[in-house]
Amino acid sequence: MKTSIRSLADLGVVTLSVAAVMALLATGVLRQRSLARIDDCRNHLRQLGLGIHNYHAAYNQMPPTCGGTTGNEDPAACNQGRLGFLVALSPFIEQQALWEKISNPYISPTASESFPPMGPVPWFDAEVYLPWGQSPGTFRCPDDTDENHDENAYQPRIVFTLQPIASMGLTTNYVACFGDSALQAGLIINKENKEEVAFSAASHRGLFVAGRVSKFRDCLDGLANTVMMSETVASIEGGRGPSGIVQTVDGLSMNPSLCLSAGNDPASRWHDFGRGSRWCDGALLITGFQTVLPPNSTSCTSELGVFDAIASTSSRHAGGVNVLMADGAIAFVSDSVDTGDLTAPAVANQPGYTAPGSQSPYGLWGGMGTRASMEPIANDLRNEKSGIEFPVWNRNQAAFANDGAGEIAFPLEHWTDQQGEVSLRARFMRIIDSKIVELRDDNGVLHQVPLNTLSDRHIFRAVEMDLMRKVD
């Protein structure tokens, strides 16, 4: 009897040990998948940064936010100057086909309605003007898709073809830095109105300014010290949540901390649209942000309306957000980054506000968002206690989840078939059974392609990469 009891006890210990090992393995797999998506997100920001630098090299200016065609109140006849920087950037990030649709006259295949070059307003029905519903995968963070909100439910789709799959969607997760001020920070500047220009110049302190062209030479703080882009959790419908925007916070620009309390107030009213809800829209609340409130804070508008707002960064990564510095470096900014005095008035050319030209009142985070305020932040950025990490890309450390295991982070590149008729931009993952090449595109879709259908050059490339993967 004692022997039986002991055997049962031993069996119980073994069972618990196996369960513990399985739990640890499952945790490790989920962690690898999370790391994979974070690294993909950083790669998207790198691509966008490279596109901005190439745009600047071509036109000697940043891509405009809130630009486009004006002069007609008909929403179908022009875009009313509301196109965002991502539209201008599209041909510089391998989205030439999308750019051709937008920049040329367009006839809707669903409604037989015609549109002029550069399209209608960004909020026009995307089922009629189809380009507004074709947000490229590069514009979206892999951690902010519906299937990735539940780690246990995440399963990448598999497509048995090399044919690229069109990315369809309205939203974007990547937003432009408008600086560290709040008073009318989203106001589209009327260049003909000298009073308006003088009023807004003091508070429009970021690399991106609505309705005005910026250049790298304007960045007197140095490109390495200035934030250019970051992330937001995207939502079309808005409402309470990480992508939501609180309405009518009185005195917002005089005391930004009011937005934090408004986000926790059950009585607060929320806008019916969310951050990142239209990839083509240049408005601050849609595709912009300010370095005022810490990452993953609430966004708010004041009693003055949607142009007087604080738009915060946010992500579904644990503990912070990725940011793109103006020199192309990627940093991870934690929720605990120094934000100075959030009860201090914003910088503005108005009585009672922080004086124009002042250093940011919002600490290290605020200083990172200004282009020419001369904050001494260079040393603080690399301080271990700053809450800012500059990850070093290492292909032996980066993790990509295809079958649950960590993999080498190979670069995105174009793969072509034997006839040279099909080209897919994707990342090599592995060769299966010496016959099938597995590629992962920008949208996270896995393509399993017969090895012998690739061009000779890419057959050799795939075999070479697979050997590298196995050696490591």
Number of strands: 16
Class computed from helices, strands and strand pairing = alpha+beta
In helices, the fraction of residues equals 10-25%
Number of helices: 9
The gross shape turns out to be globular
Approximately what portion of the residues adopt beta-strand conformation?
5-15%
Mean model confidence by pLDDT: 83
Largest sheet: 6 strands, mixed
**End-to-end distance:** 52 Å
Describe the oligomeric state of these chains in a short phrase: single chain
Unreliable stretches (pLDDT < 50, length at least 5) are 21-31, 146-156, 393-407
- Taking all Cα atoms into account, the compactness measure Rg is 24 Å
Q: Would you list the SSEs in sequence order as H and E?
A: HHHEEEEHEEHHEEEEEHHEEEEEH
Order of neighbouring strands in the sheet with most strands: 7-4-5-10-11-12
Q: Would you mind describing this structure in some detail?
A:
- The radius of gyration is 24 Å and the shape is globular.
- Mean pLDDT is 83; it is low at 21-31, 146-156 and 393-407.
- The strands form 4 sheets. The protein has a 6-stranded mixed sheet. A 5-stranded mixed sheet has the order 3-16-15-14-13. The protein has a 3-stranded mixed sheet with strand order 6-8-9, with helices on one face.
- It contains 9 helices and 16 strands.
- A hairpin with a 2-residue loop joins strand 8 and strand 9 (305-310).
- It is of the alpha+beta class.
- 25% of the residues lie in helices and 14% in strands.
- The longest helix has 58 residues, at 2-59.
